[in-house]
Amino acid sequence: MSDSTGESDQILGAARQSLVTQQEGGTHRPGTSIGKGSAGAKRKNWLNRAKYFAGAVLTILVSAGVAGVVLEGIGFTGVMMVALAVMAAAFVFSNYPKIKTPKRAELKLGNPQQMVARTELWLEAQRPHLPGPAAAILDRLGTQLDALGVQLQTMDENHSAMSEVRELVGEYIPETIDNYRKIPAHLRGEEHAGGTADDRLTTSLTKLSGEVDRVTRRLAEGALDDLAVKSRYLDYRYGGDELLADLQNEGSGVPLPDFDAAREPQKQGR
Questions:
Q1: By residue range, what is the domain housing residue 44?
Q2: Which of 8, 108, 129, 192 lies at a CB distance of 3.0 to 4.6 Å from 166, suitable for a disulfide?
Q3: Does residue 110 sit in the same domain as residue 152?
């Protein structure tokens, strides 16, 4: 009977490694989008591929039809060539054109939607090179960038907050990741000045994530205040008898007329 001790050690080692991986944030699939901005850019790329493929197939079929008329049929060989041409077009346009990863200098350019989409695409390209906890923070950043992009859509380009956001999203976040990636991989887990590069990256990204959330909340305060004022106005105008009863019970300071007393003189006059 063969000795299975070595296999058991390998199984236990793999189990321990799997547990560590899950504790650090799990295994990340490179194809998943971290936000709606990057997902939309990928979807647009796939639609372009589909259009190119449809155009190629139409061209192939038209060419085959013209050849059939001129040659009075293309025969079995011609049909096979058409099939191979369609298969080749399917292969080419299922892989090309590839979506381009933006350069760092391009991240803070364009309108808010473009800025968010570019940053999310760039972060997705960096995710496979980061430790598990840091990669998990990128997923959260994607959702936060989507929310921030919504707030920026109605903001004037010259607003003071716009430059702050472009600096935060287009400079601080990518610069933090770039600085980490400049460190050789075998040194990232070593202690240096009280911590490892992996730990410092995770801490820095956590702070940046909190800052993105803070900016988004600050920009949303105006809309929340407007909604509260509008809601209160609608309550006063359309609240009906229930609101009047509440005002009477609360003692709003504005006395309501006694309608029964007003009717008494009218009854006596009759």
A1: 36-93
A2: 108
A3: yes
Contact between 57 and 89 (Cβ < 8 Å) = yes
Does pLDDT of 133 surpass 90? yes
Query: Are 116 and 84 contained in the same domain?
Result: no
CA distance linking residue 48 with residue 45, whole number of Å: 5
**Do 108 and 227 fall within a single domain?**
yes
Token couple for 122: 């760039």
Q: What is the average per-residue pLDDT within 209-222?
A: 85
Residue 62: the pLDDT is 92
pLDDT digits (tens, 9 = 90+) for 143-182: 999 988 888 887 777 777 788 888 898 899 999 999 999 9
Q: In this structure, are 205 and 176 located in the same domain? A: yes
In a domain, 70, yes or no: yes
- Give the ranges where 31-131 is alpha helix by DSSP (H): 36-71, 75-93, 112-126
Is 253 a domain residue?
no
Please indicate whether residue 81 or residue 221 has the higher confidence score (pLDDT): 81
Gap between the Cα atoms of 197 and 97, Å rounded: 36
pLDDT in tens, 217-226: 888 776 555 6
Q: Full-prediction pTM beyond 0.85?
A: no
Nearest-angstrom CA–CA distance, 233 and 254? 17
CA separation, residue 102 to residues 31, 108, 116, 117, 194 (Å): 16, 11, 11, 10, 34
**CB-based contacts of 178, cutoff 8 Å, min separation 6:** 104
Taking the chain, what is the end-to-end CA distance rounded to the nearest angstrom?
117
Please tell me whether residues 89 and 108 are part of one structural domain.
Answer: no
* Mean pLDDT of the region 79-92: 91
